[in-house]
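Something for you to look into today, if you have time. What I am after is a single protein written out in full by you. I want to see for myself how the chain folds. Could you add the entry underneath, on a fresh line?
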Amino acid sequence: MIGVIDGYDYVDPTVMEYLNKKPNNVLVMKGEKPLERLLEMLISGRITTIIEDKSVLQYKITQMGKADLVKVSGITDTVVDVFSSFSPKNNKSKEYAKILTEEIIKMRKDGRLKIILDKYGIQDWQDK
């Protein structure tokens, strides 16, 4: 049984094809804290796997204090970039975007980014 979150679009066509062809093997979680509930079901053996972004999953299991109970594994060939956005209505948006970009570069160089990411159990996206 595979756990997924209602409303998510799993970009990888192979994943979507499987989910659509085998609905009896898929548990679609709705409501509040769906990932936490899916993780509890995984830990208790009620489902076999969860499809989720690796960084999100690592953060959530670390936050729940259960990182030692879940093995994060498997990847797809599909890469989805995540971006920060700034409102075009805000006159300072371009300035903020530049500050964010420059600061991430500095933080990566001096190790601060790794410290922050480690706190949440997340790997630097440039190391992938």
The two ends are 28 Å apart (CA to CA). The chain is about 45% helix and 10% strand.
